[in-house]
Design brief:
Strand order of the largest sheet: 13-12-11-14-15-16-17-18
Oligomer: single chain
Number of strands: 18
Enzyme class: lyase
Catalytic activity: a (3S)-3-hydroxyacyl-CoA + NAD(+) = a 3-oxoacyl-CoA + NADH + H(+)
Strand content: 5-15%
Helix content: 40-55%
CATH topology of the domain at 8-307: 2-enoyl-CoA Hydratase, Chain A, domain 1
Number of helices: 28
Pathway: Lipid metabolism; fatty acid beta-oxidation
Protein name: enoyl-CoA hydratase
Radius of gyration: 27 Å
CATH architecture of the domain at 8-307: Alpha-Beta Complex
GO molecular function: enoyl-CoA hydratase activity; long-chain (3S)-3-hydroxyacyl-CoA dehydrogenase (NAD+) activity; NAD+ binding
Shape: globular
Length: 702
């Protein structure tokens, strides 16, 4: 929450959670607390030792099994399960337990034991109630589904994100959720990994009631007396109990899934559909098949690489820890990037002032922010508070009060320096100045700033509201305290900071530009743009380089290409003259409605469907220059280490996550093989494919 104010929701929030009786029963458990209240209701509270959030580790599950035995012997009138963590109920299984497992038989044995514990909970003869606040995800939701009732504290969220790790639910979710709610809604939740917030969860029938924290005792009493009992299931449950009906629905599910991901790259959703189609009418058979399928997926390459990506993300999150001491952000430039940065910061609790020399640009940015708040904030109070924090600053006076000034004007060094000369004298003592430049080295910008130690780069990616990565760009005159505050600021607004050294293109654009430029060379050779994009998508990229260039903006691509062409010794193709013509004519890509592709009213590219499929060699021709540039960045010290580089390229470019990162992919495929392929491409197409000198050192590490 911003230091500048407290929302109405925060003022109304309870000061303490109701965790049942203070007097506990001595059980010897480390992670769980057991108590018995005056109404003879047992309270089982999870507070995992040494962790900020609850997860279901093997130790937690073993203790739960022991405590269920105690509860069976106690024979209370009911059981309440809660979390003592402020952040939420249970965030799922402990992913650390899954890392590096290659034996599916071992996984199957461990999951069978875990299922026995959850089944024991489900079989308790007394009413059982999960009281859920905050997040309830994955294994945590599966534990809650094993209870007879679920009550949500307002603001709770429920979901199965396993598909994002290359898995499907593995602790009973595949059969308990479709038995509780509309099976098609249940499958959609599991196939997409999307969360259902409180109101949606209640509408689905996932929870029995939504309450405020102060009403927990009344809700417990209602559950124990049976007053929450209601009919479960619906007509779809009965219809989809028949195999032919499930078969028809499963075909539609596969068709929709194929629009999003390839089975070869992401098998988990397809295995989930197989499970449901084959066993959806038989819970016992589904349970056995779920365990086998989960074990096979977990031991597979895709899941292990996606689990690696999970930990890469956690590593970037750790960079954002600490206090930034930033409560007020002043954004200069109300274009797409500046306006969206302002909206995001306001949504995350900061006071924001937004200025631009064009008053109409500010108005448009505020309008976009309002639409964003309506879509992404879940209560009217949150939307109102966010809008109150975002101020249209037509005079630019906010620069004198802000803790952080972010410049997001045109990608032109002269324009940026002019802005700094005007704003620096107005800034308060100790305030930070950040540039959102995507490629200009900070050494070229800092000479216009009287306090270079407080100047750094905060390179957000487009679209700001979806791209988590932010490059925190340092230089040799930047103060470490300023850079630490910058990283903490990113953490405070739920972005992933990656520290990089100032250099042309920094990290992400440095590695992305050879990939995009090679695509433009292919266009010049007469290869269809749809074929080029398909080659990248076949490799596993979320979109092809032609569509990506349009998404980034051809004007931005042009400036980055010029910067790298002038600033690097590495051979690069010449910037096509037709690209300069397109930009000068305003055909800058998706934001203009026309670029390399034309776009419909919804912003979707109009692609031909009759173009030839890509030759297998096209993928290497696109991807290997990107990986080669990664090796160069590592050699030059632009980024600290391989894991940080892999994380940044995945979250900054969308590099095929199931491959675990560009350098991880290089090692998996074989470094010698990649070097040999680069040499073959060099012989055919020129020195821009020459293997970087850093490959030699890379082969000796990791």
């Amino acid at each position: 929450m911003s230091k500048t104010g407290i929302s109405a929701a925060a003022l109304l929030a309870p000061r303490a959670m109701d965790l049942g009786p203070a007097e506990r029963i001595d059980t010897g458990a480390v992670h769980w607390r057991l108590a018995r209240d005056a109404q003879d209701v047992a309270w089982l509270v999870l507070d995992r030792a040494g962790e900020s959030a609850n997860t279901l580790s093997e130790a937690v599950m073993a203790e739960l099994d022991m405590l269920l035995g105690r509860i069976e012997a106690m024979k209370p009138k009911g059981l309440v399960i809660r979390s003592a963590k402020k952040s939420g109920f249970i965030a799922g299984a402990d992913i650390r337990d899954f890392q590096g497992i290659a034996d599916s038989a071992e996984v199957e044995a461990r999951m069978t034991q875990a299922h026995a514990v959850i089944d024991r909970l489900a079989a308790l003869p007394m009413p059982t109630l999960a009281v859920v606040h905050g997040h309830c995800l994955g294994g945590g939701l599966e534990l809650a589904l094993a209870c007879r009732y679920r009550i949500a504290i307002d603001g709770a969220s429920f979901g199965f994100p396993e598909v994002l790790l290359g898995l499907h639910p593995g602790l009973g979710g595949t059969f308990r959720l479709p038995a509780l709610i509309d099976p098609l809604e249940a499958m959609t939740m599991m196939l997409t990994g999307k969360t259902a917030h409180t109101k949606r969860a209640k509408a689905l029938g996932l929870v029995d009631a939504v309450i405020e924290e102060r009403h927990v005792q009344n809700a417990v009493a209602a559950a124990m007396s049976g007053k929450l009992r209601k009919p479960r299931g619906n007509w779809k449950s009965g219809l989809l109990g028949f195999s032919p009906a499930r078969g028809l629905a499963a075909r539609r599910m596969r068709a929709e899934t194929e629009k999003r991901v390839s089975e070869a790259h992401y098998p988990a959703p397809y295995r989930l559909i197989d499970l449901w189609e084959e066993h959806g009418g038989d819970a016992k058979a589904m349970q056995k098949a779920e365990i086998r399928s989960f074990a096979a997926l977990l031991a597979g390459v895709t899941a292990q690489n996606l689990i690696r990506v999970f930990f890469l993300r956690e590593g970037l999150k750790a960079q954002g820890k600490g206090d930034s001491d930033i409560a007020h952000v002043h954004v200069i430039g109300a274009g797409t990037m500046g306006g969206d940065i302002a909206a995001w910061c306001a949504a995350r609790g900061l006071k924001v002032t937004l200025t631009d020399i064009d008053a109409k640009a500010i108005a448009r940015a505020v309008g976009r922010a309002s639409s964003f708040f309506d879509k992404r904030l879940y209560t009217g109070i949150d939307r109102r508070d966010a809008f109150d924090r975002l101020g249209a600053d037509f005079s630019g006076d906010g620069a004198g009060r802000a803790d952080l000034v972010i410049e997001a004007v045109a990608e032109n060094a002269d324009i940026k320096r002019t802005v700094y000369k005007a704003v620096a004298p107005r800034m308060k003592e100790g305030a930070l100045l950040a540039t959102n430049t995507s490629s200009i080295p900070l050494e070229q910008l800092r000479r216009s700033v009287p306090f270079p130690e407080r100047l750094f780069g905060l390179h957000f990616f487009n679209p700001v509201t979806r791209m988590e990565l932010v490059e925190v760009v340092g230089h040799d005159k930047a103060a470490e305290r300023a850079l630490q505050r910058a990283r903490a600021f990113c953490g405070a607004i739920d972005r992933l900071p990656v520290p990089v050294r100032s250099a042309p293109g920094f990290l992400v654009n440095r590695v992305l530009t050879p990939y995009l430029m090679e695509a433009l060379v292919m266009l010049d050779e007469g290869i269809d743009k749809e074929t080029i994009d398909k080659a990248a998508e076949t490799f596993g990229m979320p979109m092809g380089p032609i569509e990506l260039a349009d998404r980034v903006g051809l004007d931005i691509c042009l400036e980055v290409a010029r910067t790298l062409k002038d600033g690097l010794k590495t051979p690069m193709p010449d910037v096509p003259a037709w690209l300069e013509t397109m930009v000068s004519e305003g055909r800058t890509g998706r934001k203009a409605g026309k670029g390399l592709y034309d776009y419909d009213a919804a912003g979707n590219p109009k692609k031909k469907t009759d173009t030839p499929p890509p030759h297998a060699s096209l993928s290497d021709r696109l991807i290997l220059p990107l990986i080669n540039a990664c090796v160069a960045c590592l050699r030059e010290g632009i980024v600290a280490d391989e894991t940080t580089l892999d994380a940044a390229v995945i979250f900054g470019t969308g590099f095929a996550p199931f491959r675990g990162g560009p350098l991880h992919y290089a090692r998996s495929r074989g470094i010698d093989d990649l070097i040999a392929e680069l040499e073959r491409l060099r012989e055919k197409f020129g020195d821009r494919f020459a293997p970087d000198a850093g490959w030699n050192g890379l082969g000796k590490t990791g």
